[in-house]
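Working notes for the structural subgroup meeting. M.R. asked for a predicted model of this chain before we commit to crystallization trials. I am recording the input and output together here so anyone reviewing the notebook later can reproduce the run.

Input as submitted:
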Amino acid sequence: MSAARGRAIRGVGRGFTLVEVVIAVAIVALLALLGYRALAALSDSEEKLAAEATRWRTLDLFFARLEGDLRQAMPRPARSADTREPAWVGATDAAGNALLAFSRAGPEFALEPSSGGARLAYQFQDGSVEVLYWASYDRPRGVEPMVYPLITGVASFRLAYLAKDGSWVDTWPRNERRQASERRCDHHGDAARGAGGGDRGDAPVAAAALDRRA
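Returned structure, recorded in token form:
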């Protein structure tokens, strides 16, 4: 009787073997690893989505700024010292990137006639698109513009102008009045398009395409 009771007590107090403990620890470690990987994947996806949203928001702001300036373009030639510039000048650099300069309307209520407009230029410089600003249409020699970078991570910047014969050209002016302009900016990533323009005198109607590389 006492021997059977002792065996029962020893059976009740028996713990886990080393093998059972190792198996339990391995199962817990595996579950923790799977949970960590799932959490890391979720975090990476959230970061990528946030970066993509920021990228598209930046592109939207850039095209909104460009469209707003083009809508305010004025058919007013400019003077730089003794040089007379057309109201709208489109050119390209050696790599084919666009340089656009045009006269832009100023505030609706200007205190002085000289403050009624400005001269703007868009250019590609070291992987970014910049806007150059002169405070008036006419300026003396040696006056440097204020330069503001608008968007970075750009591979190339393209502009095209629609002529009356339906052909697209990358420089302006021509002998015929332009009808529209197409804006193209290659950026790191996918593709986006925008449109804009205006009907203020010689101002263009504009359509834009933007390609980004990953």
